[in-house]
Specification:
Shape: globular
Order of helices and strands: EHEHHEHEHHHEH
Protein name: AAA family ATPase
Helix content: 40-55%
Organism: Luteipulveratus flavus
Strand content: 5-15%
CATH topology: Rossmann fold
CATH class: Alpha Beta
Largest sheet: 5 strands, parallel
CATH architecture: 3-Layer(aba) Sandwich
CATH superfamily: P-loop containing nucleotide triphosphate hydrolases
Structural class: alpha/beta
Length: 188
């Protein structure tokens, strides 16, 4: 029998490196699914993709995709800023319903470094999902980057299984090893 499937949430403010780490993880773990909700929203009709209706539709789709993929015994990674518990709880319940492990990783960097990273990403945005936050109509448009970071800091104590991983820019290898350690993977 193979290893138990895992649902891994990479939570964190915009530009902290969630998408980069998620992609690196799936590149290293065959059949893992990078379930990026911002990308999923882009698959919806243009009129709803950037609305609350679109956000909720993407979350419903994500839960269905996660259920299917976990049920097949494969890992699912969800790189998404989630500053409120309801969708985290829904993801956790999905993992439990599928007999999968649930891992909640919160990626963090200092407020100033996040602001610098976000500004740089916005200027150089080539991925459409990064423009969702950059253009002020995605989740980041509802609250400032600073507010998002503080919301996560306040959320973590209510999520006792969450593991905070520092994610300084330019330290992708170190951050990736910390992620694997948080997941209980030992790599050389």
């Amino acid at each position: 029998m193979g290893a138990t499937a895992r649902l891994i949430v990479l939570n964190g403010p915009p530009a902290v490196g969630k998408s980069t780490l998620a992609q690196r993880f799936v590149d290293d773990h065959p059949m893992s699914l990078n379930l990026d909700l911002d990308r999923l929203r882009l698959l919806l009709g243009a009129a709803t993709a950037r609305t609350d209706e679109g956000r909720l539709a993407a979350r419903r789709l994500a839960l269905a995709l996660a259920t299917s993929h976990l049920g097949a015994g494969n890992d699912v990674v969800v790189p998404q800023y989630l500053g409120r518990p309801p969708f985290l709880e829904a993801l956790e319940q999905t993992a439990e319903d599928c007999g999968a492990q649930f891992h909640e990783i919160v990626l963090m960097d200092s407020e100033q470094r996040l602001a610098d990273r976000f500004a740089g990403r916005t200027l150089a945005a080539t991925a459409p999902e990064h423009t969702l936050a950059a253009d002020g109509v995605g989740d980041a448009g509802r609250e400032s980057l600073s507010e998002m970071r503080h919301r996560l800091i306040e959320l973590v104590p209510s999520r006792p299984a969450a593991v905070v991983v520092e994610c300084p820019e330019g330290q992708e290898d170190i951050t990736y090893r910390a992620l694997l350690d948080a997941l209980g993977e030992r790599r050389s």
